[in-house]
Amino acid sequence: MKTFIKNNILNFYILIFLIISFISISKASLYLSSTLGNLYFKQVIWFLVGFIFILFIRRIKIKKFYNISLYLYLLNNIFLAGLFLFGKEINSSKAWYSIFNVNLQPSELMKISLILLNSYVIYKFYKNKSTLKKKEEFKLILTLLFILIVPSILTFLEPDTGAVICYFVITFSMLYISGIDKRWFYLFFAVLFLGIIFFLYLFYFDQTKFISIFGTSFFYRIERILDWGSKSGMQLNNSLIAIGSSGLTGHSEIPIYYPEAGTDFIFTSYSSTYGLVGSIVLLIILFSFDLYLLKITKKLVNKQNKYTLFGIFSLFFYQQVQNIAMTMGLLPITGITLPLISYGGSSVLCFLILIGIVESILKEKKA
Predict the structure, then answer these.
(1) Which of 103, 157, 246, 254 could form a disulfide with 96 if both were Cys (CB 3.0 to 4.6 A apart)?
(2) Using CA atoms in the order 280, 257, 88, 327, what is the torsion angle rounded to 10 degrees?
């Protein structure tokens, strides 16, 4: 029995996430358009499809995924570029393909490609070496930055700022764990700080030049992000009301409307329904899941697999923190889903495929 539980821990987490997602989306359905159909039923279907992917992926040696990672990366870049010609516009963003009324988002699949390709590249640089010389480290950084910048530009133009941030989190977290000299990070953040100062100076004191350089659309996107601290906007205000009024045990029904109740603001739907007690339980579940991924990562001897698992852990952890914090006004609203809980076929598939990769790594470890 103990062995059975140990071998199926990830499956238990998937089942828990499915139940929480199903309940939260069904509660949010009161404020969802009827044209969207039965979202909680669709979510179950996406979980089933994702689980089939897991069964398929876990049977394949992880090395095979590393070997085709460049081709997956190039293919996903083609998909991202194709959005400008064939993409379906939703909420002023061309980020989806609509195939037989099923929306697929290439930026979610790009997260998988980045993790696999970054792991492949980092491992190649360190192969047969315990450390890298400064010149080799600089070359590694430039290579990873190039891999990062191409999909970031394509995704940013959709526009999908949230996904771009995820790309950066993946790349820099994997680079950090690679063993590279940490002084590169100090240099990067120093340059980034100066760049932000100059950027903000233009934004606040020379808006004409800012718009001439970056465009009007980008100006309004940055304005939205920088205004998050004022807690302004109907979506955030209503989210705060729904969460703040839920008390210890929550409402029988969500008391107030807010947009994206089943997707970006799914935590509001859950917290409003189950109150402080339910929210703490959910946070404990998410934390224990992340801790489990981190525990596996630390135990791995194979460095390439370690890079991959840490990238997966970082993505899960970042999106959980960002999504929950933005519903409470603690971080800017960036349109990032709560992994395996928010509705979204592409997001669900992305994270279940990543869990399949984790299981493939675990299977290799036991062999």
Answers:
(1) 103
(2) -30
Cut 0.90: pTM above it: yes
185 band by pLDDT with thresholds 50, 70 and 90: confident
Pairwise CA distance, residues 326 & 321, whole Å: 8
Q: pLDDT category, 114, cuts 50, 70, 90?
A: very high
Of the listed ranges 252-266, 290-304, 327-341, the least confidently predicted one is: 252-266
pLDDT digits (tens, 9 = 90+) for 15-30: 999 999 998 888 887 7
Torsion angle of C-alpha atoms 125, 130, 135, 141, degrees rounded to 10:
50
Residue type, 163: A
Domain count within the chain: 1
- How much is the pLDDT for 4? 65
User: Considering only CA atoms, which of 110, 95, 147 is closest in space to residue 315?
Assistant: 110
Question: For residues 249 and 274, is the Cβ–Cβ distance under 8 A?
Answer: yes
Return the HEC string of the chain. CHHHHHHCHHHHHHHHHHHHHHHHHHHHHHHCCHHHCCHHHHHHHHHHHHHHHHHHHCCCCHHHHHHCHHHHHHHHHHHHHHHHHHCEEECCEEEEEEECCEEECHHHHHHHHHHHHHHHHHHHHHCCCCCCCHHHHHHHHHHHHHHHHHHHHHHHCCCCHHHHHHHHHHHHHHHHHCCCCCHHHHHHHHHHHHHHHHHHHHHHHCHHHHHHHHCHHHHHHHHHHHHHHHCCCHHHHHHHHHHHCCCCCCCCCCCCCCCCCCCCCHHHHHHHHHHHHHHHHHHHHHHHHHHHHHHHHHHCCCHHHHHHHHHHHHHHHHHHHHHHHHHCCCCCCCCCCCCCCCCCHHHHHHHHHHHHHHHHHHHHHHC
pLDDT at 157: 87
What range defines the domain where residue 77 resides?
A: 2-366
- Given a cut of 90, whether residue 329 has pLDDT beyond it is no
State how far the Cα of 224 lies from the Cα of 319, in Å rounded to an integer. 19
Q: Report the pLDDT value the prediction gives residue 102, as an integer from 0 to 100.
A: 85
Report whether 202 contacts 231 (CB < 8 A). no
pLDDT of residue 175: 93
